[in-house]
Design brief:
By secondary structure, this protein is of the alpha/beta class. The chain is 43% helix and 18% strand. It is built from 15 helices and 16 strands. The longest helix is centred in the last third of the chain and has 21 residues. It is globular, with a radius of gyration of 22 Å. The protein starts with a strand and ends with a helix.
């Protein structure tokens, strides 16, 4: 079996690296003697000149460091102040600086130069996400002829948003050097196709193949899954001490999202406020737990979303709280996965209502965690990639507070039999198309 080489922005470190992507790729890396390459997390004025080994995992791990300038321009700058808002439908939040593009291209070229001496002729190279769009082009320029695939974990922007980039045609030139472009959902393939056609004279030469700048690149949707079996077990085994105490016997509604403007947290808070205003009978009968770990705190847009969210939570609690009931508990820190699994199982309603999202695995984790005999109800944004395959959820428009408030009320009042039927259909998809299916299907397509 040829070796698998995974390249991502961040390298999973520690003696027992964890996370969804690790679970997805660990078997393939271990069985092929593979290697994972990524950023060490070390920002230093004196980065190591070569990739550094990190023992302790069942596969080889190699890392690179970044200088403060590279971290600012490549990571905080072009990746997260230009590409991230663009791909999530917020080009108005882009901060375009010429040095950001220079830094993004420079770091991708640096990574390629560091990788090449460690490659073997038959290696399969799988590049992850938006930080590394140019990597295949840089590797090709250095003479690498290996199969190179890319998987985009976030949405792909349509032509109107792509046109807001400082370098739209260059984006498609970068992508044309990959053998296979993987997307989360059919909608992302459609956005890529139309953007490539309008902005880079791309031609559709077959249902899954585009020709850009004389090069052919295959495209396919591979909806990522979770390790369903282990998450189900963690939910069942979660201790009662990790569950939320409901003083009034209220049902719990839960949201778990990084505190990001793409996740629609202020919009769901406003919908919850509308629900409490319109249906007083639900006072003390529904409690909303929102867990929102911090992310990218150095970027101004994230400071703004935190202030807005904290203000809304305080206002709603001030308006509706009683001596025994706090309508919203807003927690701005992460929780371990086993604790989250138990909380999902306890929750009558799971809120997954992003304004834009690649897939959103919280939706699948919530479904996997439920008690099949008495399951909760998933409320899911139509703008999450998961909505394409999870139509037994209550699908809502997160921009419409009335639509979301009605769904909350419907979920609270839904009969047990209807909840069971919806959950059984959702769970079948989560279990069948799990994370192992995702990685296997992608790598088979790349080999083909």
């Amino acid at each position: 079996m040829s070796r698998l080489v995974v390249v991502s922005n961040r390298l999973p470190l520690g003696d027992n690296p964890s996370g969804g992507l690790v679970v997805a790729l660990e078997d393939a890396l271990r069985s092929s003697g593979g290697v994972w390459i990524g950023f060490s997390g070390e920002v230093t004025d004196h980065p190591a000149p070569d990739l550094q080994d990190h023992p302790g995992a069942d596969f080889q791990r190699m890392s690179f460091d970044l200088t403060p300038q590279d971290h600012e321009e490549y990571y905080l700058g072009y990746s997260n102040s230009i590409l991230w808002p663009l791909c999530h439908g917020r080009p108005n939040l882009m901060r375009i600086q010429p040095e950001y593009l220079d830094g993004y291209a420079r770091v991708n070229a640096l990574i390629a130069r560091m990788i090449v001496p460690h490659l073997r002729p038959d290696d399969r190279i799988w590049v992850q996400d938006y930080h590394l769009f140019p990597l295949a082009a840089e590797l090709r320029a250095l003479g690498v002829g290996n199969k190179i695939g890319h998987f985009l974990h976030i949405p792909f922007p349509g032509p109107a948003d792509c046109a807001a980039l400082p370098n739209p045609s260059q984006l498609f030139d970068w992508l044309s050097h990959y053998d296979l472009l993987g997307f989360q959902a059919d909608r992302d393939m459609g956005a890529f196709a139309e953007s490539a056609r309008q902005l880079a004279d791309g031609d559709l030469v077959s249902p899954d193949r585009f020709r850009i700048a004389g090069r052919d690149v295959r495209t396919q949707a591979f909806p990522i899954g979770i390790d369903a079996a282990s998450f189900m077990a963690e939910a069942v085994d979660a201790p009662d001490s990790d569950r939320m105490r409901m003083l009034t016997g209220a049902k719990m509604m839960i949201g778990v999202d990084r505190l990001d403007y793409s996740k629609g947290i202020p919009q769901r808070f406003r919908a919850y406020q509308l629900l409490l205003e319109k249906i007083p009978d639900l006072h003390e009968k529904i409690s909303f737990l929102q867990i929102a770990p911090p992310t990218r705190g150095a970027v101004e847009a994230y400071q703004t979303i935190r202030e807005e969210t904290e203000h809304l939570a305080g206002r709603i609690n001030g308006q509706f709280a009683t001596l025994n009931w706090t309508p919203i508990r807003f927690i701005h820190r992460p929780f371990p996965r086993p604790v989250l699994a138990g909380l999902y199982r306890q929750a009558r309603i799971g809120l997954v209502t992003p304004l834009a999202d690649g897939m959103n695995l919280v939706a699948k984790e919530y479904v996997a965690a439920q008690n099949p005999d008495d399951p909760g109800v998933l409320i899911l944004s139509r703008f999450a990639g998961a909505a394409e395959t999870m139509d037994q959820a209550l699908i809502i428009n997160p921009h419409d507070p009335h639509d979301l408030a009605v769904a909350m009320a419907q979920a609270m009042r839904m009969s047990q039999s209807e909840r069971r039927d919806r959950h059984a259909a959702l769970l079948e998809g989560v279990v069948t198309h799990d994370v192992a299916w995702w990685s296997r299907t992608y790598l088979e397509a790349l080999a083909g």
